[in-house]
Known about the structure:
Two copies of one chain form a homodimer. By secondary structure, chain A is an alpha+beta fold. Chain A has two domains: about 1-95, Alpha-Beta Plaits (2-Layer Sandwich); about 110-255, 2-Layer Sandwich (Alpha-Beta Plaits). Chain A has five helices and ten strands, in the order βαββαβββαβββααβ. In chain A, strands 1, 2, 3, 4, 5, 6, 7, 8, 9 and 10 form a ten-stranded mixed beta sheet that branches. In chain A, helix 3 (about 140-145) packs across helix 4 (about 200-210). Chain A is globular, with a radius of gyration of 19 Å.
Amino acid sequence: MARYRILVAYDGTDFSGWQRQADRRSVQQTIEEALLPLSPGGAPVDVNGSGRTDAGVHARGQVAHFDLAREIAGPSLRRALNDRLPEDVRVLRAEPAPPDFDARRSAHGKEYRYRVWNAEVADPVLRRFRLRVSRALDLAAMRRAAASFVGEHDFAAFTANPQRPVESTVRRVFSVEVAAEDDSPEVEIRVSGEGFLYKMVRSMAGFLLAVGTGKERPEAVAEVLASRVRTARVESAPAHGLILWRVWYGDARVLPPSDRDLFPPFGPSPAR
Amino acid sequence: MARYRILVAYDGTDFSGWQRQADRRSVQQTIEEALLPLSPGGAPVDVNGSGRTDAGVHARGQVAHFDLAREIAGPSLRRALNDRLPEDVRVLRAEPAPPDFDARRSAHGKEYRYRVWNAEVADPVLRRFRLRVSRALDLAAMRRAAASFVGEHDFAAFTANPQRPVESTVRRVFSVEVAAEDDSPEVEIRVSGEGFLYKMVRSMAGFLLAVGTGKERPEAVAEVLASRVRTARVESAPAHGLILWRVWYGDARVLPPSDRDLFPPFGPSPAR
């Protein structure tokens, strides 16, 4: 058996999420099916992601590992998978991994990005990948609120009832940035942390948007965190604005300057 | 009767083009149907675009005019249309226009952009809006080739058999830029000109890509233009990479610095 890891991007629109489910189209199962013809004797392959993404959530940097009873070079594995995968999932890189590499347990951190189209009219081309918000967002207020999320906190008020109960709702958030460009309706909420609870990023994004539209004050973040109880005051932002941006396996505190550095030994970069 | 003009964006993926056609979904007819409930007595409304776009071609800045036997403010018209239009068409602006404004005849120029994803693996999120080209493009060669298109030329070799024969195949191209950013697989071919023949931009883009991949030399543009005969040497690039970016109604020689300036009196800009 040889272990492999893959860097995966997907358009989450037509998936019921990462996780395999009976009778529903999942990214995990789609990749497992594409691997079957590559597996000696057609033995089923378990694909293990760095974490689940919900129905409708996209990924640009999901990482997964699996074992295969054959030797295959990274570029050949990538090509073989992409030839078999539907167009809404792409393997960006593939390579052999150390036997103890575990996409979930070896991860040191993750970054999610929540994308907003802050304009009265939606962009028809980006409509599946941006939440449209008509009211002009108060970015300064959102940035003040975002700062209160950073650090180690009990995020019980910013998670939904998980499918699997968790032992602790304490998580460490490295940074929350609210990025925007002049003269563009795009606003991006970038959240990185050691790990996230179920619907935690969407709950944070939903609350930051409530601050941005004036429904909540920036100081409310600290109050709601301290309450440690999820109430209707916290709304999860819709899935289609969220993207799993990247997963780190190096020093989680050092944000890499570019994607090229994410997996130094992770096979060749895309052409150009 | 009052004349109106609208600025329209669409995702061309699921349209058979701009032009109304029996039994096929067109952007023109979709807008005409959305206008019906706004038209006194339900009188049919003719929507006249600045030009046709082919099946699968997108638009960010299509302009159209129509007459309506009622007075309605621009923002109300925009809202009423967007409420009735499907998500893949959006009216970005709407306003009353002078009675002699004609979206096609009043236009002084147009800009199209052809978008390429130059990498071995496609981006699943952008797959409907980028042509993927695996081989690393020689941008310097493409830029040399692009320069030969600029100016007034007979473009007979760079058009397909038109649905309606044209009197002259001479057209003036203002500029052809090949834009790319370091560390990004995006390459954009920006073509602006006084007017374009049927499939002219896609033929130009297809030839520039042939130069970029080494199939043709940059000097071949001048030769093929001079031949004035369309041959198999010129291939039209696929529709899904092409976007009608904007139409000018001011001085066609002066490229406006931003979209805000396109229609100074064209109603308020989108929020933010």
